[in-house]
Amino acid sequence: MVHPQVEELSLPKVLAALADPARLATVRMLAQVGESACGQIQHDAGLEVSKSTMSHHVRILREAGITHSRVQGARRLLTLRRDDLDARFPGLLDAVLRPELAETR
Amino acid sequence: MVHPQVEELSLPKVLAALADPARLATVRMLAQVGESACGQIQHDAGLEVSKSTMSHHVRILREAGITHSRVQGARRLLTLRRDDLDARFPGLLDAVLRPELAETR
DNA sequence: CCCGTAGTTCGACAATCATCAAACAGTTCG
DNA sequence: CGAACTGTTTGATGATTGTCGAACTACGGG
User: Fold this and answer.
1) Low pLDDT (below 50) residues in chain B
2) Domain that holds residue A22
3) Which end of chain A, C or N, has fewer beta carbons within 10 A?
């Protein structure tokens, strides 16, 4: 399971990963709840996509370095890599997560 | 020539527009020089793309609401819509323009 | 009036992307 | 064991994207 290191994070890649409504909603949900499983996020955020699509989005986020996945039993628990993102791109995550931007369209 | 209004700016669209190295370099150049023409930017930023490709990128930036274009003779002068972006997405532009992120890869 | 400069528009093309269903794999629990 | 649950992988498909060259439009200077 690929988890890029902090120094490897690419700004265009991170921006591209965030530039999708479903992924933005996922990130927003993670910012709220801290740690959660794919299916749970999908449900809580009201994402109407198939599980394979959700799996795809989660992978994009992970490979961009935005989230971290750990395996716990049958579930994959995701967390935001807040510290790493803040270290590499200060202010970016905060800007994107501002509550008044909640409509992710 | 399409110039979306502030309230119409969409976060995913803005992020998608910024998620391309050539466009990011364009925005960065505009932040430095203030106002400049497409060809000038392309030259100054060392962008090795055809003029039709450059025209395409400029259009994406404009339609995302990131830049403003005005016609002056045969040239199109671009400016960053700093105030509008700051009003709608506070901190986003600052985060993306941080000098230590200069390598736009 | 013609020529050079500055961009746009129009296909075209290859690459990437978001999406899905189906099959698969690992976990948990009865 | 076997069923239910969680998520990944694998094609497949249609849409979008970045790129180009060529043709076109518009302005400015000799």
Assistant:
1) none
2) 6-98
3) C
Q: B70 vs B1, B33, B84, CA distance in Å?
A: 9, 16, 16
CA distance A73 to chain B (A): 34
**Nearest residue, CB atoms, A11 vs list B12, B89, B101:** B101
Q: Where are the alpha helices (DSSP H) in B34-81?
A: 38-44, 51-64
Neighbour tally for A81: CB within 10 Å: 23
The CATH number that applies at residue A17 is: 1.10.10.10
Position A19 scores a pLDDT of 98
Spatial distance between the Cα atoms of B30 and B102, rounded to a whole number of angstroms:
13
Instruction: Please count the structural domains in chain B.
Output: 1
pTM: 0.96
The gap between B73 CA and D30 C1' (Å) is 18
Q: Is B27 within the bounds of a domain? A: yes
Query: In which residue ranges of chain A is pLDDT below 50?
Result: none
The SS3 assignment for A76 reads: strand
The answer to whether the beta carbon of residue B58 comes closer than 7 angstroms to any atom of strand C is yes
- Whether the beta carbon of A58 falls within 7 A of nucleic chain C: the reply is no
A1 found inside a domain: no
Nucleotides in D strand less than 7 A from protein CB: 5-11, 17-23, 26-28
